[in-house]
Amino acid sequence: MLFLHYSRKSNSKLKTIIFLSVLFLYCFNSRTAYSKESYDEDTAAFENTTHIGTWVTVFSKEEILYNLKNADKLIKNCKALGINHIYLQIYRADTAYYNSTVLPNDAYSKMLTATGGSDPIEHIISQAHANGIKVYAWLNILSISQNAQGNIIKKYGQSVLTLDRFGRTSLIRGERNEMDKYYIREDQLFLEPGDSRVRQYITSIVSEILKRYPRMDGIHLDYIRYPTAMPFPLGSRFDSHGLSYGYNKINIQNFKQATGLDPSTMPKTRDNFARWDEWRRMQINNLVKEISKIVRNTYPDKKISCAIVPSIDRTYFSTFQNWTYWLKEKFVDYVVLMNYSEDTHLVEMNSKAMLAQTSNSKVHVGIGAHLFSERPSILAEQINTLKELYPGGIAIFSYDDLIKNPSLKKIMEEMAL
């Protein structure tokens, strides 16, 4: 009798467990369906209307900015490949590839000569809009590449450059010490965002571009960050084993005035390190905010996007890109992860981590077609993987890499159908 009683009781428990399990699965599936509906509301159904973008560099072998036929070819290719957003580089290495009065106009003059007097940027915008494609002005903000004779250097001298704790720029060819055996610098000159002259200079360029090209759909901010080194330290308390930047004299002076601390000599406590790291985040924040204010107040219909490194740790502790704050404060509309790798699993993990921080529609994922020339199938693999994550969009670096490789181009054409 005891056995029979136990069996019936166990059977009852089993039925209860089965019922609850079925109920859980039903609720989970219903929630999953609801989540996808939410995604549809948030991203307007990825498969149908998501942003598919591409970066067009000033070094394009197609010479997009110097050849109107190739500019038309750009639009035709984008249409065929399902690309509806073009990030058109027009400011790089402190050089204007547009009609400027803030900067020397040498590059733009060459563009006009090559096109017979027609502004290629206006031409691209017109042709793109006629085909339902948006165009963003892609600007390299704080990197001036290796242009030690750039306009801003001639105007203010090297005092506007950011430095590491040894007082060096991030150029590899600069002064070296024993530690250089253990890390790799970016080999570019970067401006110091904590210098008000730099912020004023950058905002004047942004204002000019928007004024010159009012039909531009938005601006795409690249290199809006501090330089970094590999491997990167997780904050300044690990600088003894790595490199970080921001040790520009003006930036240090401003930090001293605000906190009474000198990052080079302050007591090495966690609190002090955290204050110095947060200070550098604030300098990037301030620059993003000032650019945003110009756009929002004067051109409220324009979108603002930012390219960021695809790592929560690196953006927070190394490049000091507090991107979730930018999105929260609506300084920018969305960010684009520079998620360039041949390893699709790594791309997926990076994307999941970043997408988890905010609304999917505000995080777009960039993938590096320049890495896939020998294995074109990786392009389709990564796009299909990303589609399952419902990002706000996908961007491909770069346009030239897509069209010069028939296999990559064919994959994009097939996926656009």
How is this structure best described in words?
With 417 residues, this protein is an alpha/beta fold. It is 47% helix and 12% strand. It has helices spanning 2-43, 46-49, 68-81, 106-115, 120-130, 151-156, 196-212, 249-259, 270-298, 312-317, 323-328, 344-355, 377-387, 399-403, 406-416; strands at residues 51-56, 85-92, 95-96, 134-140, 218-222, 303-308, 334-338, 363-368, 393-397. The chain has an eight-stranded parallel barrel, surrounded by four helices. Helix 13 (377-387) links the parallel strand 8 (363-368) and strand 9 (393-397). Helix 3 (68-81) packs parallel to helix 5 (120-130) and helix 12 runs parallel beside helix 13. The chain is globular, with a radius of gyration of 25 Å.
Annotation keywords:
single chain, 417 residues, alpha/beta, eight-stranded parallel β-barrel, 15 helices, 9 strands, 47% helix, 12% strand, Secreted protein containing DUF187, GH, Divisome_Glycosyl_Hydrolase, signal
